[in-house]
Amino acid sequence: MNQGNFPTTVQQFLSANLLSYLELLQSMVNINSFTANATGVNQLGRLTADAFARLGFIPEFIPSRYSGFGQHLVLTRPGTSGRTIGCISHLDTVYPPEEEQANDFHWQVIGNRIYGPGTADIKGGTVAIYMMLDAIRAFRPDVYDEVTWIVLLDASEEDMADDFGALCHHRLAGRETLAALIFEPGYMNSAGKEFWVVRSRKGMGVFNVQVEGKSAHAGSAHAQGANAIVQMAEVIQRLAALTDYERQVTVNVGVVQGGTVTNRVPHYAQARLEMRAFELDVYEETIAKILVLNELSTVKSQENGYACRVRVELERRTLPWPANAATNYLIAVWQEAGRELGFTVKPEDRGGLSDGNHFWFAVPCLDGLGIAGGNAHSAERSSDGSKDQEYCLPGSLVPKTLLNVLGVLKLIEGD
Known about the structure:
This protein has 415 residues and is α+β, with helices and mostly antiparallel strands. It is 33% helix and 25% strand.
């Protein structure tokens, strides 16, 4: 690819249009698209479809397999060849409308940051896709017309429902798909010269734990009871002990419920937890250790020996996305593009999941290509600064898009 003044010209184009791109982002952020708010998710989907129609994309709205969620959105611009590039984002955020209102959490420009729900995760990523395609259309119309572009937006990524992964697999898997580019937030250093892309992600297991005990009057018949909460407390301690930072495995008990009133020995308790690990063998080993707690029974009533009973259920498995040759190749392409721009591109192993966990093995994937920012999934703000809300760095949009444009062109022309 003969670069010439190409990077400078693209940078000038992106900078000249940055205000309109940010206006698009603001219109997206102003729509509450909490995963369980199907109406808001669908409203954002329609706005997104209208925006990408200006780039020649045809929308499909695909119902989720799961009730209560909005519609997935697939945007397609057919090319003259079979070569395909997928761009992945999602429509939903983690913030219920009530939480946004309670924390006065909305689009707000403060210094070099823009605060608001989804500014970084991931509405800013969707705008980054738009910017990349807009620049390629403007300066390389031959490439834009030759490639089939498919933009896929998940309605329920924050819940990690697996039907969208199957949809991406169906639409993208094949020899002529060059890459699935995932626009989750990506880090950039303060000087704007170092960028991180994601090469691997942890897998996750979600578990439900229930304890059945025996109720009794807490004052006059305490010895007859088998306290389900006490049994659950032991289970939680055993689960927490499975966290091993050296092996990069975490077990997090996130929800605990039990009991009704203080004058009754509780007969039931429940907990939900997740486990995450990078390595498949560690992942499977830890799942097995958690399931060993099924049928644990160490707390008994003193009077008649009635034993509590623990039931452990594995509700969901999302396998790890390990470092692999296909992703490493894409990283090398982006690193080459970065060198031409005076940037350094570094690989990152990230503990959070993305849609790529569901199809990395079928399509070459690269993640972390979206806008830079911070405090993802955070809506609270405190006067002492110990809590702060999600924000994006709008100054990252132009350099990151420039990097993505050159990376995509190198990928296409080097194929």
